[in-house]
Amino acid sequence: MNTDRIPVAFASVMLLRSGDSSMVVFGMSDNDGNYSLNNIVPGKYWLRFSATGYNETQSPVFELTEQQKDFGTQVMSKDVKELQEVTVRSERALYQQKTEGLTVNVGSSIFTKGSSALDVLGRSPGVLVNRRNNTIELNGKPGVKIMLNGKLMYLSEEQLFNLLSGMSADNIATIELLTSPTAKYDAEGSAGLINIVLKKNKNIGTNGSESLTAGYGYREKIATSFNLSHNTKHMNLYGDYTYSRNHTYSSMDVDSWQDMPFMGGKVHTQGLDTTDALFSNHNVTVGMDARLNERTSIGGSVIYTNNRSSGSTFGHFQYNVLPDSLLKYDGVNSGANQWNNIVSSAYLEKRFHQGESMNINVDYLFFENNDHYMVQSSFVNKYNMQAGNHEALSAPAQKGAAHTNINVIVGKTDYMKQWGSKTKLEAGIKIAHTTNTSSSGFKSWIDTAWTSNRQTTSSIIMRETIGAAYASMTIDINTSTHLTTGIRYEYVTTQLNNADTGASVEQRNMGALFPNVLLTKKINAQNELQLSYTKRISRPSYNDMASYVGYSDPTTVYTGNPFLQPTITHNVRLGYYYKRYALSILFSRDINTIVRYQLTESPEHNMLYISPQNMSWQNNITFQATLPVSINNWWTMNWNFIGGSRKYAITYAKQPVEYGYFAYSVNYTHTFKLPRLFSVELSGNYNNQSYNGTQRVEGFHILNIGLKKELKDNKGSFQFSVNDIFRRERYEVHYGTITREPFDIMNRVVVYTEPSQFTIFKIGYSRSFGNGKKAEKRSAVSSDEQERIRKE
Hints:
Protein name: Carboxypeptidase regulatory-like domain-containing protein
Mean pLDDT: 86
Organism: Hydrobacter penzbergensis
Strand content: over 45%
GO molecular function: carboxypeptidase activity
CATH architecture of the largest domain: Beta Barrel
Region (Disordered): 771-792
Number of helices: 4
CATH topology of the largest domain: Maltoporin, Chain A
Domain Outer membrane protein beta-barrel: 352-734
Shape: globular
Distance between the termini: 23 Å
Oligomer: single chain
Number of domains: 2
Radius of gyration: 28 Å
CATH superfamily of the largest domain: TonB-dependent receptor, beta-barrel domain
């Protein structure tokens, strides 16, 4: 600690031999100033302590005769000398492996400025962002859950997709891809958890940063951010504001064969949808941390987000009904959507004495969405006469609205007790209550009047309570072998009622145990082995189970599945680490895997339903390699490979099927440091062919290039980037390739994103300011995430 009795975080600790002062072991203090050095043979040594802003300190020579030795408290005095100005060019590694998964330091990439959180996720290893279905996959599996600063977002996949689309990446510090979370994390998320950690400046004094990014592709792109913090020894006040505007474009090309009674028999369909959309997003964060005394801290934060979008989709479809009939559909779907989100939290942290602490957290989350749309269309035969017999879905006009209101209250208590240096207990309880009120429906213009029916209207209120308790024990079996074992119990009650009548729609009660085990074997200072087992779950969301009807076209509607079952996942993972290199193999078994946007027939066999379904099971064997390579002092590379076999069974299709395939993805980044404080970043990712239920998804490759110029005298930096320089970001999906689809559909659907049709250029400027800015670069890893990252 320092002379003010405040712990010195991330101080360098070196153990040196007394004879020749050669270094034996290097370590670093944690956020509380604690450190440990392992694998030391008996002998005479001395310690050296150093940290930015402090005078170097050393211990007397001592003789180590036991495996364990407590060196007590070391006091470091501050270095008050004024240093000459020095320009330091230091970047955090883009990828850092830890026991629970991979950490992506997004601030190390030139492409982060002006991007959304969803854009950054799409460039992360093993993450597939499907912009056609609005879903996110991790390592080839659906069922991933998103956390914000460690807080689970209680939203459906589509709602999360919209939230992340409007979240600026400028204030994101790291993204944690947690494939083997321990018992202290929620068991929700069969594919794992993605934790988005926001930046938080802890430097003493008043500090801040600002950035502005402008770009152009199809239309304008703007992003700006400003944050400010004031930190004293006892209090930290912080806040930030971000704004983004994105005028974008996409299109969808459809070529389909099907045999549908509604259309009169065998049909060949060809069509094109084009979408012009405008997204505008505001985000405000304010927070406070206070150190009441040496053992007690309190704090809280509020994040408010307002997302607005508007746009029009123009559809042109031609239905060739064999042998010689023709139907034509032309429509314009215009709509507006608004999200208001509040994520608030408060905490109390209490340290009772050395090695014992408790944290109490209370969170309140509020999400509100309002969606309105109008469809104006013509559906005519080859004689230009109205087709569809004046049925609702073929009417010349549709208008609809949807309103969602979600309130979540979460209370959590975590306790930690350390016994000596070999045993640590972590335990806690949590309760979360969610109330989700949702109403939706659309009306059709029939016979000069707006007409609705029961099938197209839904008004549901969902109440869900999740109670959880966990205990986890970490034991140092010896100096090189560590065991963490834990168990988590969660009990969930879910009730869906009709909001208008109060009638029960669905009621479920489920309790389950989720064990996990992690065994770590340190072979030597540079080699380590890990073996882990985890059990996880993915529960259906309200949207998955509700029997609503959403308009797609005159032959197709979106709906839910009230019979959907939760997914249970068992994971076994073996990892090997050498210095900064990481290799792992993951075996997973899913029961009742949830797959969304699958095709089924309506009960009357006259309409096509798009809904979530359960696959019987899915087995994955996944290999992952993280390979940082330094060619020389100006050229570094980061490679990440994820691939393996996938096999699953489908019973909801007309013809049940078991299917297997090999899938892989590669992420890479090349960074070139050039003279005069210039740097160039070349990054890309390739995803090969994969499958989503009965759908085959073709592979694609994206390559980005960026240029950065740092200014002298801490005056900031300029960034210039071009996304998807070869215009390859498109999503091609095939239906009917592995089994029979409803109405014998054979579809090819291609979604062309904006970068695949328009080159997007962005230029930005950012700078930091304040009296603590030099200390900001002292560590390769910020205080918030240091404790989460595996140390070499």
